[in-house]
Predict the structure of DUF2207 domain-containing protein.
Amino acid sequence: MRKTLLLLIFLFGCFSFFQSAEAAGNYYYDLIEVDIWINKDSTFDVIERMTYNLNGSFGYFYRDIELKDLDHLSDIEVFDSQGNKLSKNQYDFKYKNNLLHLQWNFPRRDFNNELKSWTVKYKVHGGLGFFDDYDELFWNAVFQDRGVIVKKAEVLVHLTQEVDTIRPRLFIGSLGDKTESYNYQVIDKKTIKFWGEYINPFQYLTVVVAWPKGIVEKPIIYRNQLTALIVLLISIFIPVIVFIKAFKDWQKKGRDVKIEKTIIAQYEPPNNLAPALIGVLVKQSVSVKDILATVINLAVRGYLKIREQEDKFIFIKNKEYIFEKLKSEAGLKPFEQETMKGIFKRKNIVSSQDLRNKFYKELPVIKKEIYKEVAQTNLFDANIQEKRKKYEKIYLISFILLTVILPPFFILGSILGLSGYYIPHLNFLMISLAISSAIGLVFTRFMPVLTNQGAEAKWQALGFKEYLHTAERFRIGAETLGTFSNFLPYAMVFGVEKQWAKRFDDFQYQKQSWYYPAAAYRGSSGAPVSFSEFSSSFSSFSSSVSSVFTSSPGGSGAGGAAGGGGGGGGGGAG
């Protein structure tokens, strides 16, 4: 009896679950038809007719339109399957997370595998691309943010007039998919048709159409002379104010102590400072070359070794560099420890390819520790990093001002429905901001104040650079060839590593225990046959690894790929 009761409860639960699932409603897009009409004034009208296959209970539909890379949308309308325009109280739209969320409602009812169509119309401003030789539409005609398939999609693009040359392209796939589809047809000199079938959930259908210049006009920059004058004045005054403020601060706090002495050759680094600290002393900033010099300095001191590996396939050569950890970083300075941890985060032997698109995350931490180390030397009167953060607030204020100034233009343009009224001004203001930021960055670069001790150390450092670059060759004897490796990281910081290596050309090369060039640079003994060949290999290493250290995922430029254009977004029913 008890088992029977449990079975009945289980069956009732299953029935309730399936009934609830059916009530929630299942659907997919039976057909999405999109008509895009390019206008002379650089806007274009989009008509989306979406036919749903519905099974279950439904009471609303929605469409999310991405606003990324667009100026704005206008003339938004919704029509039912009979072509009747919905009244304002039957749908609403709002902006959120760089999307226009459009939702229309109807009396909820049950559907049994029925087809129902709705049409959405809107005008796109600022959605075309203008290039030197052509203009272009790059549009995600079928949106990706949906969890159901699109059984069939058709897109028609209508140019404003006939042209002799039309270049269509089509991409169907996930974001970034560059595989082209050839499901398109140039119907006539102003109409192109695209299509696709069974487009999977979360996939785009992206159309690209390019045509000769002169068919459409670029957006008018200014529609209102008074607004233009106001924006012009604001754009002029922002850089002026930033310049005056930065100049006064520099006069008050940013002048370094000057050593009125002729620079003469010095034969060792001042105060036995590490290469990266010398870089900050001379340049008052940390560059990726300073961090690379730190890596070489650690290698020379026996904490790691580097091997150049060259693979050759027919005439194609591929180089990468292998880093092998030899000793623990315990006992090193904090910035050196962070450098070692950044390279050998997961294992003790890594390649430059392993570090690509990953090591860039370590740079801010390493730079911060270098600045802290410099602050402890009493060469500067305060922590450089903290001092620069203070002046970066000036630029943050500029951004805040822009976010306060720009919204009224957006709101006014939206209320009045003036195409191109407010968006173009953003370009002018952004140029002003760029100039202001450049002014601030230039002054900030010179803001750190050297103490008397720091000024003396800088003079010695420049003398050391003179020695590495141009000092007499007779100063180097056979017994001092070991200084080549010890001073090489400093030469890298100064940018004179090639000149430093060249000074040893007349001496027999001594094998370095920390760097092993590829076989192409080696003689019969397995070591490079000269310093010049070592220099050639090391120069290639420096250039390649610097690029690896700063590389990060992503890129720029539209190129051609699914999801690369404007539009897109999502849609659904409920």
